[in-house]
């Protein structure tokens, strides 16, 4: 898929020095986010305000019950986009509230009663893909039908890997937290990777780095083989 057929995608996340997203498997990322500098929290919300859409995975919704709106700065909240293969979104999820427009992307295998319940809550439900959400297809729909030109991801390791594996990420912005939490099964920035050789590694180029309050922020451009870097 050519870049102009999909939104420009920025992945943004806080990570510890050892690359972890949470204290342990199943723990909310909000625990670590409490330790971000106030200025970095503002940067996060500024980034949301600059984007047309924001995406997180269904598991992040189940664990964090995120709101995904712009609150610390002036600006419009982006469209919330949640891929959920089987439409298993908790009925009390904050993203089902009226704070911003929400799109739930499901597979054709999603139970009809779950889809109906979501639509009753006033969200858009898009079926794209047979057994799993077709992420490239979803990106095309977001661009063509919803006018999404710029999207950010605040995802967990599964969604992050899926988007990277489909070469759908253009930039990564990392907020570095001065902690080490360890844990062999503690979620890291990207999960699911099963590479065999160094040729399969996803390569990046450092765009810039700066201090935001007490946090180091690094920004990276994705390099996908012969395709080169995404546009900044």
Main attributes of the structure:
232 residues, alpha/beta, Dihydrofolate Reductase, subunit A, nine-stranded mixed beta sheet, 6 helices, 9 strands, 23% helix
Strand content: 15-25%
- Work out the helicity level: 10-25%
- The total number of structural domains is 1
> How many H/I helices?
6
Q: Strand-and-helix sequence, N→C?
A: EHHEHEEHEHEHEEE
Which runs of at least 5 residues are low in confidence (pLDDT < 50)? 227-232
- The rounded Rg comes to 17 Å
Describe this structure in words.
By secondary structure, the chain is α/β, with parallel strands linked by helices. The chain has one domain: Dihydrofolate Reductase, subunit A, CATH 3.40.430.10. Helix content is 23%, strand content 24%. The chain has six helices and nine strands. Helix 3 links the parallel strand 2 and strand 3. The protein is globular. The C terminus is likely disordered.
What's the gist of this structure?
The protein has a single domain, classed as Dihydrofolate Reductase, subunit A (3-Layer(aba) Sandwich).
How is the topology of this model organized?
Layout: E1 8-16, H1 30-33, H2 38-50, E2 53-55, H3 58-64, E3 79-83, E4 102-106, H4 112-120, E5 124-127, H5 135-146, E6 150-153, H6 157-165, E7 171-177, E8 203-212, E9 215-223
Parallel strand pairs: 1-6, 1-7, 2-3, 2-6, 3-4, 4-5
Antiparallel strand pairs: 7-9, 8-9
């Amino acid at each position: 898929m050519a870049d102009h057929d999909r939104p420009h995608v920025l992945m943004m996340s806080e990570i510890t020095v050892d690359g972890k997203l949470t204290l342990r498997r199943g723990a909310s990322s909000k625990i670590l986010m409490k330790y971000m500098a106030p200025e970095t929290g503002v940067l996060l919300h500024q980034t949301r305000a600059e984007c047309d859409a924001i995406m997180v995975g269904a598991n992040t919704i189940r664990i964090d019950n995120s709101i995904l709106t712009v609150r610390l700065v002036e600006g419009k909240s982006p469209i919330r986009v949640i891929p959920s293969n089987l439409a298993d979104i908790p009925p009390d999820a904050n993203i089902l509230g009226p704070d911003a427009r929400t799109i739930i992307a499901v597979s054709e295998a999603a139970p009809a009663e779950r889809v109906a319940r979501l639509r009753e809550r006033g969200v858009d439900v898009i079926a794209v893909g047979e057994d799993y959400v077709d992420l490239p297809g979803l990106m095309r729909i977001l661009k063509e039908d919803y006018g999404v030109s710029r999207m950010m991801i605040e995802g967990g390791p599964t969604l992050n890997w899926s988007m990277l594996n489909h070469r759908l990420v253009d930039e990564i912005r990392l907020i570095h937290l001065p902690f080490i939490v360890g844990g062999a099964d503690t979620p890291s920035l990207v999960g699911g990777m099963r590479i065999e050789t160094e040729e399969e590694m996803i390569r990046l180029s450092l765009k810039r780095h700066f201090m935001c309050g007490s946090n180091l922020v690094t920004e990276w451009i994705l390099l996908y083989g012969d395709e080169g870097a995404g546009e900044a």
